[in-house]
Specification:
By secondary structure, the chain is an alpha/beta fold. It is built from seven helices and 19 strands. It folds into two domains: 187 residues, FAD/NAD(P)-binding domain; 121 residues, FAD/NAD(P)-binding domain (3-Layer(bba) Sandwich), CATH 3.50.50.60. β7 and β8 form a beta hairpin. The longest helix has 24 residues. Bound molecules: flavin-adenine dinucleotide (FAD).
C-alpha cells in the first residue's frame, strides 16, 4: 500500500461513540452537517461494559447497555452519520481546519469543527475475578447499580470523596456498607468523613486490600478475599456487591497542552456550554464532567455540543 497519506475533510468530526458522541451525531446529522464519528477502541463506550441500564429515560423495563448503544448508533445512522473505526492518536488544533491522525498514521482527517466525546475510564483493581464479575456484582457506579442491592451487604473500595459519596448513597438500599481502604485514614474531605463516620450503616476495614472477588461458579459476587497490609492476615468478607471507587481517568491525554484541562485532566468548558479553550472545538460527556458521569448527562451535553458546533459554523459562514 502506498505510504502517501490520504486526507479526508469533514465539516464536523466527533471523537467517541458513547452516549455523548452518538447523541452529538444524531443532532449534527439532523442539522445536515454530515458528521463523521470516529468510534475509538471501545465502540459504544462504557455502557458496553455493563448489563442492565435501569435509569435511562424511555426504557421502563430497563435495557442491556450494549443493546442501548446499538440503538443510539442505529439512530445516528438513520440520518446518515458516517462512521470510522479506530482511535485518533494525535491532533493539531493550532489552526483551522483541525487535523487528526488515526492509529495507523496512514490516514489523516481534517474538520472545521471538532466535538470531543472521548469519555472517561473507571479505574479498576486489575483482578481477573473483578473483570469476570463486572455487571454481576462488581460495579464502579453506585448511582447506576446501587438499586440492585436492596437489603444486601455491599463493599466500597477506596478512601477519597468519591468512595464516601458512593458509600453514603448505597446506605439508601444496602443493609450494610463496608468501606475497604488500604490505609488507616481516609483521604476524603473532613465533611465527607464526618458524614460517613456518622452513618451507622457504614463500617470501615482499614489497611486492607481486595485479593480476589469471590463468586459461586462465576455467577454473581458472594464475597471478597481481603488481605491486611500491616499484619498480612487474609480474611473473607461476605457481600453481594462491590463498588470500586478508586477514581476515574478522563480519556484526554491526546489533548494535553492543546486544550485547557483541569488538574485531573477533564476538559474545561465555558459554563453552560460545550465551548473549550480552542474556538471550534467542543467537548461533551464524561471527558468534560467529573461530577455527574451518567449516560443521560453525557447524551444531554452531546446534544449541546452539536447545537454549539452548528451555530458556530453558521456564524462563521455568515461573516
Ligand atoms: C460498568 C459501568 C456501568 C454504568 N452504568 C450506568 C448506568 O446504569 N446508567 C448511567 O446513566 N450511566 C452508567 N455508567 C456511566 C456511563 O456509562 C457514562 O457516564 C457514559 O457512558 C459516558 O458517556 P460518554 O459518551 O461521555 O463516554 P464513554 O461512554 O466513555 O465513550 C467514550 C468513547 O470515546 C472513544 N474514544 C476514547 N478515546 C478516543 C480516541 N483517542 N479516539 C477516538 N475515540 C476515542 C471510546 O472508544 C468510546 O467510544 C456506567 C459506567 C460503567 C463503567
Amino acid at each position: 500500500m502506498s505510504e502517501k497519506r490520504q486526507q479526508d475533510h469533514h465539516r464536523v468530526i466527533i471523537l467517541g461513540s458513547g452516549p455523548a458522541g452518538l447523541t452529538a451525531a444524531i443532532y449534527a446529522a439532523r442539522a445536515d452537517l454530515h458528521p463523521l464519528v470516529v468510534s475509538g477502541n471501545e465502540p459504544g463506550g462504557q455502557l458496553t461494559l455493563t448489563t442492565e441500564v435501569d435509569n435511562y429515560p424511555g426504557y421502563p423495563e430497563g435495557i442491556q447497555g450494549p443493546e442501548m448503544m446499538e440503538q443510539f448508533r442505529a439512530q445516528a445512522e438513520r440520518f446518515n452519520t458516517e462512521f470510522r473505526t479506530g482511535q485518533v492518536e494525535s491532533v493539531e488544533l493550532s489552526g483551522r481546519p483541525f487535523h487528526l491522525w488515526l492509529e495507523s498514521q496512514s490516514r489523516e482527517l481534517s474538520c472545521d469543527a471538532l466535538i470531543v466525546a472521548t469519555g472517561a475510564s473507571a479505574r479498576w483493581l486489575g483482578l481477573e475475578s473483578e473483570t469476570a464479575l463486572r455487571g454481576r456484582g462488581v460495579s464502579a457506579c453506585a448511582t447506576c447499580d446501587g438499586f440492585f442491592f436492596r437489603e444486601r451487604e455491599v463493599a466500597v473500595v477506596g478512601g477519597g470523596d468519591t468512595a464516601m459519596e458512593e458509600a453514603l448513597f448505597l446506605t439508601k438500599f444496602a443493609s450494610k456498607v463496608h468501606v475497604i481502604h488500604r490505609r488507616d485514614e481516609l483521604r476524603a474531605s473532613q465533611f465527607m468523613q464526618q458524614r460517613a463516620f456518622g452513618n451507622e450503616k457504614i463500617s470501615f476495614i482499614w489497611d486492607s486490600v481486595v485479593g480476589e472477588v469471590l463468586s459461586a461458579e462465576g455467577d454473581a459476587v458472594t464475597g471478597l478475599q481481603l488481605r491486611n497490609l500491616k499484619s498480612g492476615a487474609c480474611s473473607e468478607l461476605s457481600v453481594g456487591g462491590v463498588f470500586m471507587a478508586i477514581g476515574h481517568k478522563p480519556n484526554t491525554d491526546l489533548f494535553r497542552e492543546k486544550l485547557e484541562l483541569d488538574d485531573m485532566g477533564y476538559i474545561e468548558v465555558r459554563a453552560g456550554s460545550t465551548y473549550t479553550s480552542v474556538e471550534g472545538v467542543f467537548a461533551c460527556g464524561d471527558a468534560a464532567d467529573n461530577n455527574y458521569r451518567q449516560a443521560v448527562t453525557a447524551a444531554g451535553t452531546g446534544c449541546m455540543a452539536a447545537i454549539d458546533a452548528e451555530r458556530w459554523l453558521t456564524e462563521r459562514e455568515d461573516e
